Amino acid sequence: MHGEVQEKGDRRGEAAETAEEGTAPNSSNGQEHYCEIKELVDLIESTASIGDYRMMQKKESHILVRRLKILLLLLEDVKELHGQVPETSSIPFSNLKKALLCAKELLITCSVGSKIYLTLENEAIMGRYHKVNQKLSEALKDLPYEELGVSHEVKEEIDIVRMHLKRSKGRTESQDAELAMDLMVVFSKDDERKADSAIIARLANKLELHSVVHLNTETIAVRKLVRESGGKNAESIQQVIELLNKFRRSAGLEDINVLDDPTFDNAFKKSLSLVIPDEFLCPISLEIMTDPVFIETGQTYERESIQKWLDSHQTYPTTRQPLAHSSLAPNYALRNLILQWCERNNFQLPIKYAASDTKSSSSIEGKEEVLSAVRNLSSNQLEVQRKASRKIRMLSKENPVNRILIAQSGGIAPLVQLLSYPDSKIQEHSVTALLNLSIDEANKKLIAREGAIPVIIDVLRNGSTAAKENSATALFSLSMVNDIKETIVLSNGIPPLVDLLQHGTMAGKKDAATALAHLCVDQANKTRAIEAGIIPPLLKLVKDSYMIDEVVSILYQLSLHQDGPQEIGQFSFIETLVDLTRDGTPTNKEWATTLLLSLASTNSSFMLIALQFGVLQNLIEISESGNARAQRKAKSLLKLMRRYEQI
After folding, report:
1. DSSP secondary structure string for all residues of 211-225
2. Regarding beta strands 300-302 and 329-330, do their DSSP bridges make them parallel or antiparallel, or are they unpaired?
3. Top mean-pLDDT range of 220-229, 265-274, 510-519, 532-541
4. Which residues are bridge partners to 293 per DSSP?
5. Distance between alpha carbon 448 and the CA centroid of its chain, in Å?
């Protein structure tokens, strides 16, 4: 080892002497390679400084950055040669640069790209990580380490990095089952789900898209995505826009119609190369302002947008701090700057029409309506309470401001008390009102604090059909908060949900399945659900071809429990799964294959049964033409079958 280090030092000494004499014909080329290596160092350092990655890609991004930083050891070691880099290393270093540029592009996408798009297309993004890792591995393999005089210590580090890069997989090891289930429900074409609003709220929190600032940043990212897509991935982009607008409505913002909005056509489609200065864009609408106005904090908004906000909110748009007053003042200086910029760039301002002045007075009337209904919840007359609970139910259904106002007016406590009333209509209206109120994140904890969970579970056991269904959905919404989820489980909430799954209407079964899917993410709750008898009604739902994707995804979660496979892997149900791999929709095939793989991994007898029903040809077809995840699962199952054949 000592001799090798000495030899390396001698070689560097020779390089220095040659450089001093200035006679080496290749000294300029060596210097070029030295600059190239320095450029690679700068490239890695700039890539490592990106940071703040999206939730779904955070783990892979940090792993990739850690590996890139280790490459700095190699490059710093080579830089010590003072320009004497062998000519033979030119192409390998060029390949390394290409791989690093691909890595940087990917990490930038996962840092500033649309959060919604990156979540929906996570499988494809994981494939890009795999390709980057393979490119880096190949580039490192081709480097002439001996000629470069790289020390054994650094070479060992690089070999370890190469091994990890080569073994990296183009997929995530574990799915976020909760997130997958939510997205499945949100984009379901079957019908309108009562739980949609609750699911939207949870998705917004999980993706950190619940504040005006975050939503506006996401809107900019989506617009950039649309411009750069060139018409590709149209279905995915349409889903992104659809979900973004659901998040915006939940936060009290207007929809953004990126594809068809005339303002977008004029202001963006005809001027894709023209970048509008950020200070000219309204923070609410993200459109260029035609009538900019100040609010008391000094921030500027488009008059129409801020007026609409103030008509239905008691807080500032960006800070959510309480309003002191709602007076507006024209920002003439900014308007003049915008007009000058438009004239210089031949940019046509969109035409705006005056908003109606009736909204301010109607918002005051709406506030009085809420306060009156909350007071009537505590009336001594049953009919007045019935009408008041129905009124609160309707007021809290769509308007996020009303949900906050009802809670601030003390409406939650009397609603919880009304759940114990023997009147079935009051029970139904009250539990549905609490469901609507729970869409607001802060209200969830207020509802639980009033002791609502045991009473809602009691309504789930003994209420009317509609009350039971809405109780199940309310528990699902409330269970987004981990502490409340634990309270639901400890209050024995799983057995009545299983009972509704077994004996409820089709709508009730759907509500119960959605709630149970979320609760069964936890291993301990899988045990409780299996003991409560969840598997038989789930198997029946699949055989009846109802909610196939949702139900099979729950069965997959249960198959990961030690007691799950034996009860799930019934002869007739495996036949049903095989039928789905042949005749189902692409998503049906994906989930059926996923569940079969899980069962076969625990017991080869399940695989043999599936083979008897002709699953082999179905799997071959899925491995060639299924969606990305279905292909992976089918290939894994086929590989498992070949392994058992060899045994």
Report:
1. SHHHHHHHHHHHHHH
2. unpaired
3. 532-541
4. 301, 330
5. 27
DSSP codes, 580-629: HHHHS-HHHHHHHHHHHHHHHHH-HHHHHHHHHTTHHHHHHHHHHHS-HH
Distances, alpha carbon 23 to alpha carbons 13, 18, 20, 35, 85, in Å? 15, 7, 8, 20, 17
Which element (helix H / strand E) includes 297? Answer: none
Give the span between the Cα atoms of 207 and 446, in whole angstroms: 23
Q: What is the mean pLDDT of residues 534-559?
A: 90
β-partners of residue 294 are: 300, 329
* Residue at 258: amino acid letter: V
> Tell me, what's the pLDDT at 6?
40
Amino acid of residue 308: K
Determine the Cα–Cα distance for residues 606 and 566; give it in Å rounded to an integer: 9
Rounded-to-integer distance, Cα 167 and Cα 163, Å? 6
What SS3 class is residue 296?
A: coil
CA separation, residue 37 to residues 64, 83, 90, 97, 99 (Å):
20, 9, 10, 9, 14
What per-residue confidence (pLDDT) applies to 22? 41
Query: In residues, how long is the chain?
Result: 647
Looking at per-residue confidence, does 36 or 75 come out higher?
A: 75
Tokens of 325: 């007053």
The pLDDT score that the predictor gives to residue 2 is 41
pLDDT at 188: 65
By CB atoms closer than 10 A (0-12, 13-18, 19+), residue 138 is: middle
Q: What DSSP string runs through 8-51?
A: HHHHHHHHHHHHHHT--TTHHHHHHHHHHHHHHHHHHHHHHT--
- Judge whether residue 564 has pLDDT over 90: yes
Say if residue 460's pLDDT is above 80: yes
- Fill in the DSSP letter of residue 301: E
Q: Indicate whether 356 pLDDT > 50.
A: no
Q: What does the block give as tokens for 57?
A: 């890609």
Closest CA to 195 of 454, 498, 419, 507: 507
Cβ 55 vs Cβ 206: under 8 Å: yes
Q: 318: number of CA atoms within 13 Å, CB side?
A: 13
- In order of 338, 610, 640, the CA distances from 596 in angstroms are 61, 8, 11
Among candidate residues 297, 359, 366, 352, the one with its CA nearest the CA of residue 327: 297
603 touches 565 (CB < 8 A): yes
Q: What distance in Å separates the CA atoms of residue 610 and residue 220, rounded to the nearest whole number? A: 49
276-290, 340-354, 421-435, 605-619, range with the lowest pLDDT: 340-354
Taking the C-alpha atoms of residue 472 and residue 478, their distance in angstroms, rounded to an integer, is 10
User: Which helix H or strand E contains 526, and what residues bound it?
Assistant: helix 523-531
Coil, strand or helix at 251? coil
Task: Grade residue 600 by pLDDT with cuts at 50, 70 and 90.
Answer: very high
Selection from 564, 554, 579 nearest residue 530 by Cα: 564
User: Whose CA is closest to 488, among 446, 511, 516, 527?
Assistant: 516
pLDDT digits (tens, 9 = 90+) for 185-233: 677 655 444 445 667 877 888 888 877 778 888 888 888 888 777 666 6
Span 94-124, pLDDT tens digits: 888 889 999 999 999 898 889 998 888 887 8
Per-residue tokens: 17: 């002497």
Return the HEC string of 332-367: HHHHHHHHHHHHHCCCCCCCCCCCCCHHHHHHHHHH
pLDDT of residue 169: 64
